[in-house]
């Protein structure tokens, strides 16, 4: 058990029952009632683990258990999200695919990755705080000004990564959305000599 200072709740997770049975359920105590929680992602069943409140992140951490685990879990109501939306348009290769490592607060090397793009081509990653759906020929521009440009070049396999940068560990940014899209120079591109990836919605979280 641990006390969540920010949410003013006691959090209970897992534990051992009769015999060798272990549990993976999560419960919260608000001072009057116990409420069972069902997070989308949760540690496996275990006992003998440690729990503590992280004042920097303002959330509860779960570590280890049963001498068989050395993993760390963070209990948060605002998980980091990287979710694609919209459609890509192709050129001389298959439509490029934009992905990202988790946009979690405090990530020391956050970045965007481009897959299946035209090989050895100039490309541009873009980030913006708002989105739109602006047709550009048969493609769609999903970013809205102002757009932060991050230039790169794809390798022989059509892979590129944006410059990496640290996301601040600032709890006031929890839940803030960002939007990303990538553009690849391609002579056969159907939008001004470019191919566009689909959009990527990023939610800053834990």
Task: Describe the 3D structure.
Helices cover 0% and strands 48% of the residues. By secondary structure, the chain is mainly beta. The strands form five sheets. Strands 8, 11, 14, 16, 17 and 18 form a six-stranded antiparallel β-sheet that branches. A hairpin with a 4-residue loop joins strand 5 and strand 6.
Please work out how many helical segments DSSP would assign: 0
**Uncertain spans:** none
For the secondary structure, the number of strands is 18
Average pLDDT over all residues? 92
Shape: elongated
Radius of gyration: 22 Å
Helix share, percent = under 10%
Biggest β-sheet strands, sense, barrel: 6 strands, antiparallel
Share in β-strands:
over 45%
Q: Report the span from N to C terminus.
A: 20 Å
Order of helices and strands: EEEEEEEEEEEEEEEEEE
Which structural category fits the helices and strands? mainly beta
What keywords describe this structure?
206 residues, mainly beta, 6-stranded antiparallel β-sheet, 4-stranded antiparallel β-sheet
Structure summary:
The chain has 206 residues and is an all-beta fold. The chain is 0% helix and 48% strand.
Write the SSE topology:
Layout: E1 2-4, E2 9-16, E3 22-29, E4 34-37, E5 50-54, E6 59-65, E7 69-75, E8 81-85, E9 97-100, E10 112-115, E11 122-128, E12 131-136, E13 139-143, E14 147-153, E15 160-161, E16 177-185, E17 194-196, E18 199-203
Antiparallel strand pairs: 1-2, 2-3, 3-4, 5-6, 6-7, 8-18, 9-10, 10-15, 11-14, 11-16, 12-13, 16-17, 16-18
């Amino acid at each position: 058990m641990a006390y969540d200072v920010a949410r003013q709740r006691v959090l209970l997770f897992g534990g051992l029952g009769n015999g060798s049975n272990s549990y993976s359920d999560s419960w919260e105590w608000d001072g009057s009632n116990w409420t069972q929680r069902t997070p989308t992602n949760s540690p496996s069943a275990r006992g003998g683990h440690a729990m503590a409140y992280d004042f920097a992140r303002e959330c509860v951490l779960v570590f280890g258990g049963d001498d068989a685990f050395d993993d760390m879990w963070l209990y948060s109501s605002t998980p980091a999200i990287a979710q694609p939306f919209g459609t890509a348009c192709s050129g001389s290769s298959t439509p490029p695919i934009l992905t990202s490592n988790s946009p979690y607060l405090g990530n020391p090397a956050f970045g965007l990755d481009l897959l299946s793009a035209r090989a050895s081509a100039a490309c541009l990653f873009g980030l913006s705080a708002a989105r739109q759906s602006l047709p550009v020929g048969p493609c769609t521009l999903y970013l809205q000004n102002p757009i932060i440009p991050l230039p790169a070049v794809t390798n022989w396999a059509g892979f590129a990564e944006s410059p990496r940068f640290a996301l601040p560990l600032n709890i006031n940014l929890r839940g803030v959305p960002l939007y990303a899209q990538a553009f690849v120079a391609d002579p056969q591109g159907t939008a001004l000599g470019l191919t566009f990836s689909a959009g990527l919605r990023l939610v800053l979280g834990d």
